[in-house]
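Task 17 of the worksheet. Students: predict the tertiary structure of the chain below and write it out as structure tokens. Keep your answer in the requested format; marks are given for formatting as well as content.
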Amino acid sequence: MAPINVLMVGTGEYTTGFVGGGMSGSDKKVGVVGLTLFDLRRRGKVGKLSMVGTSGTKFPAIREHLQKNISAVYNKLDVSFTSFPPDTTDRDPNAYRAAIDALSAGDAITIFTPDPSHYPIALYAIRRGIHVLLTKPATQLLSHHQDILSESRKYNVFVFIEHHKRFDPAYADAKARARTLGDFNYFYSYMSQPKSQLETFKAWAGRDSDISYYLNSHHVDICESMVPDWKPVLVTANGSKGCAEALGCVKGTEDTISLMVRWEKRTDQSKVATGVYTASWTAPQRAGVHSNQYFHYMAANGEIRIDQAKRGYELAEDSAGQLMCYNPFYMKYAPDEEGNFNGQTGYGYISFEKFIDGVTALNEKRVTLEELDKRGLPTIRNTIGTTAILEAGRRSLDEDRTVEIVEKDGVWELK
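Model answer:
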């Protein structure tokens, strides 16, 4: 079969590295999605590429940015794509429909857009036989997550959640070792981004979503994947406030959110574990890393600690004015000896390649959706617990109470 065509929905930082009229100041200066797909096209794994945003007038500057910072750096890598809406259109929030309609059944889309838009865009694609990669969180509501699961089965469409941390070699190894350490007992995670990131996100931060949906989604998923014999049953959330509001975010925007989750063993409810997941987007500007991120897992017969931000790779540079810690295991931006992009082993890249390989195998009838679920990939079915915890956390904050998670015969609900 011919390689699948892919539409990138969303033109922001994670897709292109283009923010506010120029290159992002974060660690994703040339993006992740676009660069990865341009390279997968070079390797023959995908065919035609397209991109859709809400504003067509951005595309000339985006193309210039990609040409200068990707094509000119990586041996004239082809960065061409078809864009929606037209370059003359100031704003069209429904442009994704025309872009998806231009695809054929069996093609795919990636969705990196504000959280509330994930559900309608994904459904529109699924009902046209288009495979979907969703950024995290998959959805904000548990009911929407289960709707997408149901529709994906109806149309035999692969829906993959871009939980790239599952493909970090240390995290993947920890998942395997955790199964040998006995019953789950305790999990603590922390993930942050600096205050400057709120400049990128202030249009939606605290208004359309929160820091828990944005960052806690990473480690809640890691924990869920490490303990498949356990289920979350109670969630209590607490939030700190003050900094984000002072930086221009809407009143009530939380700076830091912690979720405390009670887990029970599926086969023995007398066995209980605790998970604490903390996320912040008001961390210091000069912390040496763009994002601090680490976890501690404890079980009956051992424990695991991983610091994903500080990998033993430090750079002191006068212009930076601080010691910087780098993580090329995520995205390796240095070219190879021939000048080509050389980041195929990064877990940010691998996440997309796993999705493309799964779509291709499904289209060629070499695998079923059920078999893809059994591989332990972050599929729409394998990530329900994460969405349940995240929505329960939001409800806990809004209603100032503990929220119960109930699962029966594969159907989940919050009480």
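Marker's comment: DSSP finds 13 helices and 18 strands in the chain. The CA atoms of residues 55 and 90 lie 5 Å apart.
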